[in-house]
Fold this protein.
Amino acid sequence: MKAEVAAGNVGENRAGKHMAKNTERPICTTCPYCGVGCGISTDGTSLKGDTLHPANAGRLCVKGSSVLETLGDQDRLLNPEVEGDVVSWDQALDEVAGRFRRIVDEHGPDAVAFYVSGQLLTEDYYVANKLMKGYIGSANIDTNSRLCMSSAVVAHKRAFGEDVVPGCYEDLELADLVILTGSNTAWAHPIVYQRIAAAKQARPEMKVVVIDPRRTATCDLADLHLAIRPGQDVPLFNGLLTWLDDNNALDQAYIDAHTEGFESTLDTARSQGNDWASLATHMGVSKVDLTTFYHWFAACDRTVTVFSQGVNQARNGSDQGNAIINAHLATGRVGKPGASPFSITGQPNAMGGREVGGLANQLAVHLDIDNPAHHAAVADFWQAPALAKENGLTAVDLFQAVASGKVKAVWIMATNPVDSLPEADKVRQALMACDTVVVSDCVASGDTLACADIRLPALGWGEKSGMVTNSERCMSRQRPFVTAPGQARADWWIITQVAQRMGFADAFPYQHEHEIFAEFSALTALAGQFGKRLDLTAAADLTADQYAQWQPQQWPLNSGPRCYGDGRFSTASERARFIACENPPVRVIGDAFPIILNSGRIRDQWHTMTRTGRAGRLFAHLSEPFAALHPKDIERYRLQEGGFVRLTSRVGDALVRVTRDTGQRPGTAFMPMHWTDQFSRRARVDALVPARLDPHSGQPAFKHTPVNVSDWQPRWHGWLFTAASPPAVEYWARVPVDAFLQAGQVQRYRLAGDADLTEQQLHDWLPQAAQWLALNDPATGHYRRAALDKDGRLLAWLAIGETLPLCDVDWLADCFTQGADIQHMTILAGQPADAGPDLGPVICSCFQVRQKTIEGAVEEGADCVEAIGQCCQAGTNCGSCIPELRGLLETCTT
Ligand SMILES: Nc1nc2c(c(=O)[nH]1)N[C@H]1C(S)=C(S)[C@@H](COP(=O)(O)OP(=O)(O)OC[C@H]3O[C@@H](n4cnc5c(=O)[nH]c(N)nc54)[C@H](O)[C@@H]3O)O[C@H]1N2
Ligand SMILES: Nc1nc2c(c(=O)[nH]1)N[C@H]1C(S)=C(S)[C@@H](COP(=O)(O)OP(=O)(O)OC[C@H]3O[C@@H](n4cnc5c(=O)[nH]c(N)nc54)[C@H](O)[C@@H]3O)O[C@H]1N2
Ligand code: SF4
Ligand SMILES: [Mo]
């Protein structure tokens, strides 16, 4: 049986099995996951938080602290491939350059496109943008930041005249009021959450307000949770503006001196009235809660409003961002210690991509394509022959242009659009029909890779080298510490090689990433000429050695940690702009699709799971795709808790498990965005999401999809452990088991199906084996099989029944990892002879502590998170499970 406390690998995490090289002394690098941008110190076999990094001061969350477990050669893309054949780099690069050149020559530059990602490094991003906009001559380069940050970019540009985040993390610690809206900080930005939690512990009078239609783990920190109806953020913040005016809480001197457009913005806000009771009803909250929030905002000069995807990913995401910024401008709370609006970034280099101009409607260094002076300056700096003159296609439009044949070649780098774009099935069809699809990725299998004509193996985290910028504009280095597997190469190198082969060798002469960074830094001088704050000119002459030694620094370089604190903005008038935000039209929920489907992140998975999906430990928290619904809806739609639900929308369908969640608003459901066709039969949430876009940013409304739900009752259920592909059944979901057979890594599949099964089928699901064990129990309708090699080692295990066969999946996983000594009857039973009680799901991933153990600790008197930690270690490493521990404390003690 797996020890309840798995000692030894915490804080000192194990490296992946095929780690090629360890460093002699620890190096400092930056976490590959979220935009908090934590520093990591590692020698290749163990890691810890970098105590000197300003973002995390030594802390790491569960994803960061388990990152070494996701490295290794298994399922890596090792060689360039053209139409399925392994080729040399020369052949692959010639092929890409040749095809792009030919299409540009025949159909013009707008017939090709790049689709890139906030997981590229700044240097990769810079050369991709320079090649497409400056040399190929089209602005058809867009990025997954379109799905993530583009509404915040619009909001910043409209309000401040530049895409600048004015505040910094320290503001969260200095604030008297922290508002977290559309942000599940506890799970998506855990170290930011921990910094707020620590500040609140030190100053309990500090208030936290969470605005989110569902009750999330983040709410455990909240003094007030406003569970607004989905999409009601503009009315909420318009109401706030009106309230501030009614209660003389505006900073009129600041408004007069530093802003414009206030009167018309206030008029628009006022048009919804100030009958707080009916407004509260409209928003779906109580009047007391609404006015408490307004009181607190009025009272606290030091207020930070953190916003993320619940704000950005909406039909009116840009306005939602501006409605927040309006309230901050109206109270003079921008860029001051403890007082700012704060859009936090998702990906490790979402911010870096915005700096270099990775979006189709940016030029570079915060300049605009359609501004002739900006255009002339960049064309001159780059000596670019064909600098694009018009904005290019934004992500959703870009893939529609691929579908219509207007775009004939697309190069996708470091993103997985077949899973992450709305109407994802159509994206897949478009790519399958496209002339040339090039995909640069690290892994060998993926839903987008399956559509590629040319696959290029890229370096991944731990191998690649370059710069990333986090949410607070802090630039840190990612440094390599393992040898690249196979033929994998840096993205910047691949792009530069293609540029050279397309005839642009003079403009892409780089030998080392630091040369690219220095050029980009020099280019920011132009930003300064046009009154922008982006300033890296101090790094323009950086030597290779200085680049190697780079310590985390915020831009503008050699400036304070905040921007705009003096009330002078990046607009021509130096005044910030209020933006009048109309309330969204009232949404009529039709009978056909009565539930509003929300989607987002879970604690231990990253996006499309190409990395976190390699570590079995990260599935302990939530192991299957699910839709969370309120118990009333489970009853109303005759679903079953733990059963299966088929979701259908106007554009697609999905089949997942039902989770009961009293924190859901009735009439809504939540699905994680993570499961792809690599991990489940049909659980891609974006197959359901229609392409409804914010008109200013082009960002899709991922959070509010009308769906229908119906119960699905399979005729049989099962478990299958195998290294082979999953069987073709109606439902399967897989979890990697930390064991490798010759055929590959063992996977644990949860199965369910409708069709009759024959003995032969069951047999075919298992691999060739020297020995077989079988047990058929017609009384229970259960069939169990085990396949063993000649030495008695387990190769595969299967149990099928009309009800889900009982077994201890963790013990079975251990049977695979620990090899021999298998007792035949026990193995068929799927649990040890001396099976202990079921301890429930793992809550603390670091120490593998299960729910019942934690509840036991509470029953024995542990009355706070720290006491639970002392009893059973839960929550004492990365702290990511602390919100859940607080939840258990609450349920056990009430
Ligand atoms: N564990 C983990 N962490 C991650 C990532 C990951 O994949 N896994 N990805 C990273 C990336 S790229 C990003 S962009 C960030 C995203 O970080 P977050 O934005 O915090 O994450 P989400 O879960 O997408 O959505 C946040 C919340 O918005 C709420 N919401 C939905 N509709 C509304 C609404 O109408 N109004 C309001 N106010 N709220 C609403 C949802 O209920 C959800 O709780 O996370 C980053 N961190
Ligand atoms: N329904 C719904 N959809 C969403 C969202 C949502 O909340 N709901 N959120 C949206 C948001 S905010 C985001 S950011 C996107 C994320 O969605 P994606 O960007 O599609 O997700 P990832 O899994 O991060 O894809 C990264 C890919 O790049 C590969 N990769 C990793 N590192 C490198 C590298 O260094 N070089 C190269 N070449 N490849 C690399 C990985 O193996 C993986 O295949 O999803 C969006 N889609
Ligand atoms: S909060 Fe976690 S995932 Fe985000 S950067 Fe820090 S360690 Fe990485
Ligand atoms: Mo994101």
In short: The longest strand covers residues 731-741. The pocket of MGD (ligand 1) is lined by residues 34, 63, 148, 181-184, 187-188, 211-214, 216, 230-231, 233, 308-311, 346-347, 598, 600-601, 603, 605-607, 703 (CB under 6 Å).
